[in-house]
Design a protein that fits this description.
Layout: H1 3-28, H2 33-45, E1 48-52, H3 59-70, E2 74-78, H4 85-89, E3 90-96, E4 102-108, E5 115-119, H5 126-129, H6 133-138, E6 140-143, E7 146-149, E8 155-160, H7 173-176, E9 179-184, H8 190-200, H9 214-224, H10 231-242, H11 253-258, E10 259-261, H12 265-281, H13 289-294, H14 296-300, E11 305-306, H15 308-312, H16 317-327
Parallel strand pairs: 1-8, 1-9, 2-5, 5-8
Antiparallel strand pairs: 3-4, 6-7, 10-11
Helix pairs in contact: 1-2, 1-3, 2-12, 10-12
Length: 335
């Protein structure tokens, strides 16, 4: 078997296992195909995911179902204004030995898991939100000078409500940038709502099967990084990111008009990795321009900050990004 044939075979195996996980999730979750795909993309690159949508759309159920299908340790943290960093990370407790001596022992918090559901993350104060910065970036927790490694794979799946602003705190930009994707969970259509009623109001409930474990996920994560990213596609990714920088070399008029701060290099890393997953699902071992375009919005919408003029005119990040996607050429004609 040639190297090219071996690569194609591995790509097919990945697509088959991916489809098996997606099928089990779809047994519980009705619709939201793109959201499920985005969550699984985050899973297979080892990235964190932010789900935004009004209450009752199945965000929490999706994350819980994902943990069941993957047979991973799962914990849920309900973020509230009085939640403290120690409630998430853990704290040193005074313990007493059998001979009466007292000592400090670290009691691990709920973040010590593999899939952590940070429910309504924007209800906690910025101090508490920032407690997860190290955890999300490095997969570690530092407490009282001691560094603890979290078990891999480790994923944070956070949810937030976009409409209720009373008692909420916007996520710090540094934390937003650590989310691989921001996925918008929309309403279900007529047929989907009917299917939800049928599945949830009868005596029997559907239980998803376990089809993958942590070791296999780590193997696929390593394989994703082996997918080839050609130089011309990489340059396209770079220019798409630089086009979000106002007054920069590749800035477009809409950027200078509505964008206050553009995306960081982490956005380019996200586009590259997500594009590799798309390529594998299409049976290819190299990233195409179309792969990049298909993941552009969820990878970028939380990484640009609009200015006051955009807010006054009701401009959303997706509107700016779609115009950039349309006008940035695949090949740099100037170069």
């Amino acid at each position: 078997m040639s190297t090219a044939e071996a690569m194609e075979q591995r790509a097919r195996q990945f697509a088959d296992r991916y489809a098996a996980v997606r099928e089990q999730i779809s047994r519980v979750i009705v619709g939201h195909e793109e959201v499920i795909h985005g969550v699984l993309t985050c899973l297979f690159v080892g990235g964190h995911c932010l789900l935004e949508g009004v209450p009752g759309l199945g965000k929490t159920l999706l994350v819980r179902t994902l943990a069941q299908v993957l047979d991973l340790e799962f914990s849920r943290i309900q973020f509230t204004p009085d939640l403290m960093p120690a409630d998430i990370l853990g704290t040193n407790m005074v313990m007493e030995s059998p001979d009466g001596k007292r000592f400090f022992q670290f009691q691990k918090g709920p973040i010590f898991t593999q899939i952590c559901l940070a429910d309504e993350i924007n209800r906690a104060t910025p101090k508490t939100q920032s407690a997860m910065l190290e955890t999300m970036q490095e997969g570690t927790v530092t407490a009282a000078g001691t560094r603890y490694e979290l078990k891999k794979p480790f994923l944070v799946m956070a949810t937030q409500n976009p409409i209720e602003q009373e008692g909420t705190y916007p996520l710090p930009e540094a934390q937003l940038d650590r989310f691989f994707f921001k996925l918008l969970v929309g309403y279900s259509n007529r047929q989907q709502v009917a299917a939800i009623i049928e599945r949830t109001t009868q005596s029997q409930t559907v239980q998803p099967a376990k089809v993958m474990d942590g070791d296999e996920i780590l193997q696929w994560q390593a394989m994703v990084r082996e997918v080839i990213l050609a130089q011309h596609v990489q340059d396209y990714i770079v220019r798409l990111v630089l086009a979000t920088h106002p007054d920069g070399q590749f800035a477009l008029p809409i950027t200078n008009q509505f964008v206050r701060w553009g995306a960081s290099p982490r956005a380019a890393q996200t586009l590259a990795l997500a594009g590799k997953v798309r390529a594998l699902l299409d049976g290819r071992y190299n990233v195409s321009f179309e792969d990049v375009r298909r993941v552009y919005l969820p990878a970028m919408r939380h990484r640009i900050i609009l200015n006051f003029e955009a807010q006054a005119e009701g401009i959303e990040p997706d509107q700016v990004l779609l115009e950039l996607l349309e006008k940035v050429p695949e090949k740099d004609t100037a170069g």
